[in-house]
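Researcher: Good morning. I'm working through a list of sequences from a screen, and I'd like to move beyond sequence-only analysis. For each chain I'm collecting a predicted structure so we can compare shapes side by side. This is the next one on the list. No need for commentary yet; just the structure.
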Amino acid sequence: FAFHYACETFASMQANLAGMYSTLIAGKRVCGSSSGGVSPRGVLVLTTVDAVAITKRLRGAYKEQCHRNQQKSSEEDSTTREVVKEVTYSSKLFSLTLPVCTPDIEKVMLSSESDKDASGNDITLPLGTRYHFKLEGHVDCDEFVVPYTDLVRAATTGCNTNATTTSTTTSDEDPVATNSNNNFTLLDSHSFTDSKQYLHEFNSTPKYKRQMDGKSLDEGDLDLIGIYRTYVFGAY
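Model: Good morning. Structure tokens for this chain:
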């Protein structure tokens, strides 16, 4: 859980994944080899922030702040508009605060939700972008943005330092990426951005209701759940 804390740079993310891969493979050697090489020798399940969801929330808050500044300038009959240097997205349970400190970050904040990058993927804040996350009573620290393509590329090409051939990653629409050099293989990836689809099942399942002391998930809970993404990697 919370692998995004290890993702300040591509190199640090790759090094952590390589260590996990080695641990899984070493453990399987102790327990015995896989049958026929068909089943993975180990499975890694990661949870990170969803870069698309984080960017969407901060972009919306940024544009709202720009609009307020513009209105303020109009009311004061001023030709100078206050520059947004920091933006905060506030929800019922958590807040995200991002310093708008580089032209690249500002460009992302000014982009449209429908805009795509050169590969056809949603535009997100770059890997390692630092923002502050506060979950009242639990978390109050800096975190890092982890784009889907960067994490998959690090896992499927960087776990075997002796590899000479690498694989390419796919977009979120085609989440299965394979390898041929003892790196991880992406088996599945799921964003909780559309978390409302789980609301009915969660609220109506007895075992979940017992865990929640009879309470149900509300919109605030769903907003928090919606900023995360899971990945399932196989080590073959």
